[in-house]
């Protein structure tokens, strides 16, 4: 009797442990009807073990993609090996709400699931055990870290004052565009522009006003360029734009429109009203150019021709 009592106690303890562990445990037979449903599954689904016993899994949980699940499960039955699914591949098998206070921003519980074959006395796989792990904390932390890294990457490419690309990243884009031209010979134009008499703005009104003028120009650039164009602050009051698949004459149309927009605009800082203009240089990429630096030098030369000729104008580089 003593031996029987010990065995019964062991079975009781085992069942109690399986029912209370903080891991979902589900056992399915060969027809995918539920045989075991532990406390974790009960707590998160709201369904009691007696309510799910001998019920088809797919009838109770329509969110489970049946074709996907059967492919996964049948391989376990056939090969007698475990299978796994992680939240990066599929966020969940059972769509449970997320109750964790730390990760309260999650709409559902992220899950890792293990599919385990259960052998009968004949050595055949008669049942399938699912272990469902709540990995919401890890998933949220990883996604937040990835977002933080992505934001950091954007910050490392961005000029703080204008929110345009900074000089370093913009020059990398220039090199990439030059290499693209050497492969495909697709035409592009480079536009360099500079605020006329900007030093006088800083000297007369202060650097805060000067920063506001720079921000005003950056906003105008964002409104004028296309999504495919690459715009950056080259340094100080100087800006650069890569116009992909655009010849010099089309670039001239863009530049003149921008120049006129700026000339007609009025910047108001507190009670200060400021009018300013810009000078622009354009250089179309050419087969004879030996480097991106030479292309940039051509655009810079055209820009200083605009300044030398009286400012507030556009010049196309002529070799």
Automatic annotation (TrEMBL):
This is diguanylate cyclase. Its cofactor is Mg(2+). It catalyses: 2 GTP = 3',3'-c-di-GMP + 2 diphosphate. GO terms for molecular function: diguanylate cyclase activity. Residues 186-319 form the GGDEF domain. SMART domains: GGDEF (SM00267), PAS (SM00091). GO terms for cellular component: plasma membrane. Its EC number is 2.7.7.65. PANTHER family: DIGUANYLATE CYCLASE DGCM-RELATED (PTHR45138:SF9), REGULATORY COMPONENTS OF SENSORY TRANSDUCTION SYSTEM (PTHR45138). GO terms for biological process: cell adhesion involved in single-species biofilm formation; negative regulation of bacterial-type flagellum-dependent cell motility; regulation of DNA-templated transcription. InterPro entries: Diguanylate_Cyclase (IPR050469), GGDEF_dom (IPR000160), Nucleotide_cyclase (IPR029787), PAS (IPR000014), PAS-like_dom_sf (IPR035965), PAS_fold (IPR013767), Rev_trsase/Diguanyl_cyclase (IPR043128).
């Amino acid at each position: 009797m003593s031996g029987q009592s010990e065995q019964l106690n062991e079975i009781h303890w085992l069942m109690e442990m399986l029912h209370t562990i903080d891991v979902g445990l589900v056992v399915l037979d060969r027809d995918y009807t539920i045989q075991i449903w532990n406390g974790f599954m009960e707590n998160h689904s709201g369904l009691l073990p007696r309510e799910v016993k001998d019920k088809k899994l797919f009838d109770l949980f329509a969110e489970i993609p049946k074709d996907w699940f059967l492919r996964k499960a049948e391989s376990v039955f056939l090969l007698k090996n475990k299978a796994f699914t992680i939240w990066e591949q599929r966020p969940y098998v059972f769509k449970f709400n997320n109750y964790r206070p730390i990760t309260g921003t999650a709409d559902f519980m992220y899950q890792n699931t293990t599919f385990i074959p259960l052998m009968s006395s004949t050595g055949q796989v008669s049942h399938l055990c699912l272990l469902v792990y709540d990995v919401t904390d890890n998933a949220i932390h990883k996604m937040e870290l990835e977002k933080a890294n992505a934001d950091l990457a954007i910050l490392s490419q961005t000029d703080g004052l204008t929110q345009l690309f900074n000089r370093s990243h913009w020059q990398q884009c220039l090199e990439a565009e030059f290499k693209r031209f050497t492969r495909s010979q697709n035409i592009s134009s480079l536009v360099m522009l500079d605020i006329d008499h900007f030093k006088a703005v800083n000297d007369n009104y202060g650097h805060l006003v000067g920063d506001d003028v720079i921000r005003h120009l950056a906003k105008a650039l964002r409104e004028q360029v296309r999504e495919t164009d690459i715009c950056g602050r080259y340094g100080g009051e100087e800006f650069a734009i890569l116009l992909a698949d655009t010849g010099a004459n089309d670039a001239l149309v863009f530049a003149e429109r921008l120049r006129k927009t700026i000339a007609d605009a009025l910047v108001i800082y507190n009670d200060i009203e400021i009018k300013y203009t810009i000078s622009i240089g354009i250089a179309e990429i050419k087969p004879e150019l030996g480097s991106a630096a030479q292309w940039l030098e051509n655009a810079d030369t055209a820009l200083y021709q605009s300044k030398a000729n009286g400012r507030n104008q556009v010049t196309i580089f002529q070799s």
